Hints:
Distance between the termini: 26 Å
Radius of gyration: 25 Å
Helix content: 10-25%
Shape: globular
Strand order of the largest sheet: 1-34-35-37-36-38-39-40-41
Number of strands: 41
Structural class: alpha+beta
Amino acid sequence: MRRLPLLLSSLSAAALLSAAALPAVAEAPMAAVVTTATTAAAAVVHEGHEPFTYQDLIGLNRLGDPRVSPDGRRVVYSVTATDVAANSRSGSLYVRDVAGDAEPVRLAISDGGANTARWGADGRLYFLSGRSGSSQVWRAEADGANPVQVTDLPTDVNAYRLSPAADRVVVSLAVYPDCDDLTCSVDRAKAESERKSTGMTFDRMFVRHWDTWNDHTQNHLFVQDIGPDGHAAGDPVWVTRGFDGDNPSKPFGDESEFTFAPDGGSIVFSARVAGQSEPWSTNFDLYQTDGISDDGAFVNLTEGNHAWDTGPVFSPDGRTLAYRAMARPGFEADKFAVFLRDVATGQTRQIAANWDRSADSLQWSADGATLYATAGDVGQTRIFAIDTRNGVVTPVTGEGHVSAFDLTPTGIVYARDALDAPSDLYFKTYRGREMPRRLTDVNPSLDDKAFGEAEQFTFDGWNGETVHGYVIKPADYVEGRKYPVAFLIHGGPQGSFGNSWSYRWNPSTYAGAGYAVVMIDFHGSTGYGQAFTDSISQHWGDRPLEDLQKGWAAAQSQYSFLDGDNACALGASYGGYMINWIAGNWPDEFKCMVNHDGVFDTFGMGYASEELWFTEWEYGGTPWENPRGYQEFNPANHVDRWKTPMLVVQGDRDYRIPTAQGLSTFTALQRRGIESRLIVFPDENHWVLKPQNSLQWHNEVFDWLADHLKSAD
């Protein structure tokens, strides 16, 4: 096993680049340079500092959605505050000068509810607010003064985007696609709400998606002009009339899936035709409307690709359309490659084809010579600069997880978090030689908290290939003592337990409770190249388990403070599947287990989960075409070997891994006479989100650990 040296989190990208030569286009950018995910490395216990706990976690402020003004001088962002006692969260908008040390200013428009702030070309702020009784687009001055309601539509605005000149706005509304106008949709929704019977009728799937039953509405795009007074003028034009599909896509789509053409005269949007195949199709295409009209005429710009196309972004001169695309139909975790389309000729080319990372969040530089993108990279999520002329890719940021960014004339404002820090804003110039400058501190209470030191390590996993993992010391670590271990297994399965912050599965809360933490980015994890990600498909139970076993052994051999006989394994989603799989295939290793919304019966999932493209890709076809693929690594077939105490958690509104999976797990445990406990959250989905429910979740999980693991020796 190779233990990687610690690097300080404050190292600039330029300093990192000077440490070793980095190819312009590399198979694994920065892998040989940035060798640790230890922004927590400098976070040791100081005199008088209390360990960070899950009670601290739940009450933290949450920063997001930074947007830079057209002149580059200011950034607006959101901060969500949590009132645990009231079981509620509320958001506010703040503005801060990018230069200088002026304190951020909370905008008064926040008092009436404000979110999704966007700058117009006119220098004004646009935002969504429900202060009029429904979610509508509003406009205010740059300082938040003089708010004016822009749209006054009869239904909620889900998402919006301004035209380049801020003289038009396109909004996404949930409508009944067979209605002729908005009035029809409103009247039908009212009639449905007043109906005395409760039966729901379906002739095609999706029947339900994520956490919501299909109400037969779709998200469609409407355009309105904005008058000089700030009010929308004229009737909204239904520009996606006749399209059978959602925009933005449910349940997590946003305005990144649609945009105005540079002249404001048409809309380009990413969408999937629903038809009868929506639940097993990932064929999202880019469509362009025929002007701003409701004639139902669209041009499919990516008809030749039957996989996922999304994220359209026009170059500053309007001559090139950049977007991201996958190559393999039906595979949601394929690499998102970057493509450029000549607007005039339609000619399309891929750039940075040899860059073995999956791009996200494309933005053009002002001169059109560079595309900036975020991508997972060996436990980090960085900003990369892609030269649009030659495809050379250069990392811009170093350690940590960049969740959002926006460009200014002189540099980049970005939101960064890490294992020991929730998200705050930073500024970095394009030169990249200086230390990033911190712009916000939305959780000053953390200055008095202690976090455990984190270290990334590597070992030889399945097939002799390098696998990365993380070990985190307890926050109150004392040299020479042995500590109980929380062995955390990430979900996805194409995901990562990297150098990032989480408000649900946060490793630092376990370190704060006195546990050492071990996490393995097994084969199938993201950020290590597409072949590494691909390797888990149709191999859920062998290759990842081998990595977990070897990684656990490697960690114990290297880190003497790990008490290998005093450990509990915990996981959610695929991680919960792996808990069930370990229970029958590695049954003597852990003293207890925690399974959150995990798969019990892979065969049953082929019929019960809503996004069938996932199960059909991961298990190699449909259950009737390839039953062996569903049964080969099925935890339900190994219950006879279960023996380890297990805590089972299930959200009853989880339609991804439905409640029957959690109930089956608990039934198997109880019928086998194994110590077990079931917690069901009737009002939660795949995630536990409500503050009081999150508190209960953490109380139950940490009590379970305390009941089964000994304290540090």
